[in-house]
Structure formats: C-alpha cells, structure tokens
Amino acid sequence: MALSSPGTNAARTAADASGPRPARGLLPLLLAGNTAMYALYVGVAGVLLALQVEAIDPAQKVANLGLVAGVSAIFATVFNPVAGALSDRSGRRNPWILAGGLLALPVMLLLGSVHTILLVTIVWCLGQAVMNVYQAALTSVVPDRIPTAARGKASAAVGLGLPVGSTIGALVGAAYSDDYRTGYLVFGAIMAVAAVLFTVCAREERMPPKAPLPVKVQLAAFGSALKNHDFRWAFIGRALLILGYFAVSGFQLYILKDHTDLPAGLAPEEAVAILMPVNSVAMVVSTVLGGWLSDRYDRRKLFVGASAALAAVALLIPAVSAGWAAMLAFSVVNGLGFGCYMAVDTALVTMVLPKAEDAARDMGVLNVANAGPQIVAPFVASVIVSVGGGYTPLFLVAAVLSVLGALAVRPIRGVR
Length: 416
Known about the structure:
Growth Hormone, Chain: A, 16 helices, transmembrane, membrane
C-alpha cells in the first residue's frame, strides 16, 4: 500500500469505504469516452484547424495558429474546474458528460462554416468550452467509482484513450484534409455517440448535492487544493511536462512541412497519419505496462519521473536530425515516455487529492495543469520558432521542460 500523509489517507479511505463499486464494463466505457475526446482534440486541433488556418493566411500560419490555440485554451482553463465544481454540487457526472458531448456536434458544424481567423478563434473557444465540460466530468469518474487498489488499471484505461484517439483523429483528419466541413462533422458525431453510449451504459448513483456557496468562497476553494504539499508538486510536474509536450505537438503539421526532410511523394498530412499509429502503438505498450507495474510495485513516483525523462530524450532526436527516420524514432520514444507518464501520473494524482468529497473540483484544478500550459505553449513556441529561426530550439526548450517535470515529483511525500 502506498505511503501517504494522514489527511490524504483519510480522504482516500473514506472514498473507498463509502464509494460505489465500479460497474461492470466501466473501464471499456472510460476508454471509449476518452478515445472520442482525444480523437477530436488531435484531429481538429492537430490537423484540420492547422490546415484551415494555413488556407486563410499562409504567410502568418505559425502566429495565427498560436493565437487560435492560445486564446481558446483560456476557455479550457476556465471551464474545466468550473464544470468540475458544478458537477460536484449537482451530485451527478453523467448529465455533464452528455451535455458536453452533444453540444460538440453543433459547434463543429459551425467551425467548418467560418472563414476568418477571428471567427475560427471564437468558435474554437466554444469548442474548448463544451469539450472541457465533458472532460471535467469524465475525469472525475475514476476517483468517484474506482477503488484505490484498482486506480492503476483504471488510469491505464483512461490513458489508452490518448493513443487510440490520436490515431483515429490523425487518420480521420488526414482523410478529410480537403473537406473541413465534413471532417468537423465526423468528429462532432463521434463525440455525441460516445457521450450517449457512456451515459446510457455507465449508470451512476446520485451523490448528495452540495449546498450553494458564495462566489467568493468558490473561487477561494479552487486555490485551496494547491495549499496541499503533495497536490501542489503533482500540479507543477504535470504543468511542466504538458507545456513542453504541447509546444511541439501543437505545431506537428508545420514541423513536418518546414523542418523535416520527408521522402519524395509523402505529403505532410500523410506523414501525420503514419506517425500517429507508430506513436500510438508505443504509447499503448507503455500505458498498459506502466499502469500494471506501478500497481504491482507500488512505485508511482519512480515511473512518473522516469517516463518524463524519457520524453525529454525523445525531444532531442529531431533536434539533432531533421530526417524522416529521426521523426519516426521520436514518435516511438515519445510514445513510450508520454504514455507511461499519463497512465501512472493520473493514478498518482488521485492518491494525493486533498479531500475525497471535492474530487471533481480538485481534479478540475489539476486539469488547469493540462489546459493552462496550452495557453502559454502556442505563444512561446511561435516566439521560439521566429526568434530561433526554426524548430530545433523549440525541441531543446521542450526537452528541458520535460526534465524539470521529472524532477518535480521528487518532493511528493505521500506516495512512493
């Protein structure tokens, strides 16, 4: 059993004693729900949105994509913890999952019909808002319904959504690269179906709703979780690694266009569709093994730190070589590092939540570490590429951030 501080251990024990047993089939439903979410994130933000921005203004594509991604990420940062707190107060998760998934469809329809950078930014902000309502509620299902001893397996199921969803997103995005409107509709439909499937099949027991609190108290409560020593360091580590990850992944299509020496006849969009499955296979292997081994040996910090360091090594590969083989190697090593990191770090985080009764709110606060760096990453990346004269300095900065993310888990005391 993991070592923990008295407060964290008490909250976790209470959650295990009083929380409902996980329903049969919940892990596959978590996988499906997260797969749909990441398919949209990768297919829209990583492929279709980049192509749409480039088609509107090719000369300013890097700056414009950074603007769209950065401004829209503000909405992700705001809506994630707010939606988590609202679902806490309502005592329900499923209605929020359903609403976010269904609303994605009309937002995607609207996104495919706009033709200026301003309108693309506004509509994608709406997209980030509804997607983070969905994500906040879905993320809270693990601490709500999964016993602590099975958190590694549950986190692996959640983590597998990233490689599987990324592959689906890249393939669908590449298939509809010349038809944005249809591509956006496909991703919206995937989200709607996933939301309906989850809420119909994963029935929940209504938790006691919380009494309304004054707005000032609610805002103060969001920051209270960061006063917890272990939770604060988990937050910092996640933020650093995500910042490095998105500084590079957000510009993957442009990296393939302007940095990588692709083989003759291979289009950048096709290269994305090749790299994603390669990355996903590596990520699946490390996600499953990382979740299982961290449960078996009860060593979360070791696996989180090692996988973050491996992600840093991966980022050095394309910095040294601009060849296609280097990008393939980067995809494999990065998949191994990032997949294990997300699986085990998610399990670690659920073990350092300050209060079991505020699980969704605190997981929403942690998700600021996912969404917050996405605000900074596009702006920082565009400045580094412009000032540094290319993408090599970007890879180096991202590698340093990953190393710092690996070191950030060392001060955590409540988990080994």
